[in-house]
Amino acid sequence: MTVTQTLPEQRRSAGGVLAGRSLNEIGLIAAILVLYVVLGSTAAGFLSLDNQLGMLRDAATVGIAAWGVTLVIIAGEIDISIGPAVAFASVLVAKGASEWGLGVVPAVLVTLAAGAVWGALAGWLRARFDVPSFIATLGIWSALGGLGLYMTDALPVVLPESGLFEVLGGAILGIPTSAIVMVVLFAAFTYIAHYTPYGRSVYAVGGNAPAARMAGINLAKIRVLLFATTGLLAAITGVLLAARLGSGNGGAASGLEFDVIAAVVIGGTALAGGRGSMLGTLLGVIFITVIGNGLVLLGVDSFLQNVVRGVIIVVAVLVNVIITKRTRATRES
């Protein structure tokens, strides 16, 4: 959008963006409803309360990290370190609480702080040396994945008995604690994305980074904060996963980063940056979770499940590209 555009032109441009976003979200809602109807009639136990609560736990594993990755992709970056980061965090909290004598609460706090630090490191590499975020987070992916397996000899590390871990891995008033955390963080990140200067800066950086710099936005600060946030959210997910499983495992959460990125993209966040919403990502998380759960209940071979997920990701990217092109054409018209 140029500075010479009139107010009506600006309104038409914004209207095109909102129309594209609404179309994507309405389509996702319809797809989820169709999935519920189909799976409810074909997959035994799909609509049972236990299965629905299980899906909430699975959704939280993807969703908590997805809120941070949504902002990262809106800013025109990418973070592929989520899976190993979650696994390493589960190992770190288990080691700290059971073998290093830190105690439960300090072990959790150290794990969360470590998550923010390794995320900030990726952001610093991107901001200071202009290392592509894919490469920076690929390095973190490899390092944390290797450390998690090395520190445990690829064996689970059992958590000590603790009331805190029982609550984190259990439920509050019948609702999984991880799902409650996911919803609370969803509300927080929705507010941050749409109602704070930081959130507006993220959109500006993704839309046009050079213009954002000229407008006085500190790109380095934004990028470090973005990746520190995804590191922190991965650590939160790791702590919750360890509490749920009763142990830390360096091989846990394998491939989680792909589910997270798929949920964000399916939710309508533009891979090129500058466009996306937390509501869209929430719907993407639900869609991915329902698909995964349905495939398991239908007895689909695990290898074929990966094929189906791969097809879904490709189709989602194609739809995303089409919507982005139409939105761009609306802006220019």
Straight-line N-to-C gap: 11 Å
CATH class: Mainly Alpha
CATH topology: ABC transporter involved in vitamin B12 uptake, BtuC
Structure class: mainly alpha
Order of helices and strands: HHHHHEHEEHHHHEHHH
How many β-strand runs? 4
Biggest sheet architecture: 2 strands, antiparallel
CATH architectural name: Orthogonal Bundle
Sheet-strand content, in percent, reads under 5%
Q: How many helix segments?
A: 13
- Count of distinct structural domains: 1
Sheet with the most strands: spatial strand order: 1-4
The percentage helix is over 70%
Radius of gyration: 20 Å
| Shape designation | globular
List keywords for this structure.
333 residues; 77% helix; disordered N terminus; 13 helices; mainly alpha; ABC transporter involved in vitamin B12 uptake, BtuC; single chain
How does this structure look, described?
With 333 residues, this protein is an all-alpha fold. It has a single domain, classed as ABC transporter involved in vitamin B12 uptake, BtuC (Orthogonal Bundle). The strands form two sheets. Strands 1-4 form a two-stranded antiparallel sheet. It starts with 6 loop residues before the first helix and ends with a helix.
Question: How does the SSE layout of this entry go?
Answer:
Elements: H1 7-42, H2 49-74, H3 82-98, H4 104-129, H5 133-152, E1 157-158, H6 163-169, E2 171-172, E3 175-176, H7 177-195, H8 197-207, H9 209-214, H10 219-245, E4 247-248, H11 256-266, H12 278-297, H13 302-332
Antiparallel strand pairs: 1-4, 2-3
Transmembrane segments: 26-49, 61-94, 100-121, 133-151, 171-193, 224-245, 251-272, 279-300, 306-323
Membrane topology: Multi-pass membrane protein
Organism: Saccharopolyspora flava
